[in-house]
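#random but structural
TW: two for the price of one
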Amino acid sequence: MTKLPILTPDDKIAEIKRLYYSATRQTIHQDLATALQLLKSMASEEERERAAVYMDGLSQMRSDWSERSGGRKSKRKR
């Protein structure tokens, strides 16, 4: 895991936004992990709320791309 430099709250949100817009099928897992680390480092609920839409989008991309690539877990047989 890469250590992140000390960032201001606005820098953290800008980095999450950058990760959101630059994510690809190949980078989504690492992008989401990095964004999650940034989110965890935010001090206030207000900061986290500002980043929420990008976090939701990254999570949705990961889900969509996992389903299409066959990475979906198989259903239990009854």
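TW: number two ↓
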Amino acid sequence: MSRAQVNRKVPAFTAESTGEQTFKLADAKGKNLVIYFYPKDSTPGCTREGQDFRDNYAKFKRNKTLVVGVSRDSIASHEKFKAKQKFPFELLSDPDEKLCKKFDVIKEKSL
């Protein structure tokens, strides 16, 4: 799987999504797309990040921008998180870290 690079088209991908869907990058053609990555459903920082996207979702929609969140959590976990937080956008499951690796977002923690 090739990596995403700055100032280059993102290589095509598909991912399992909430709402019993499969998200395909091609579905975003002709629109702006925000893909945000977060470590874990229902943790304080990740919840706040999702809430910020939720609270500003109308602005994204007005600007023809799709928002999707990605983490390694399961679809079942995502569905609960999405429902509890009333997220109007889909969450993608990346249990094998393919998308995380494609976008180079997995980093080793250093203290």
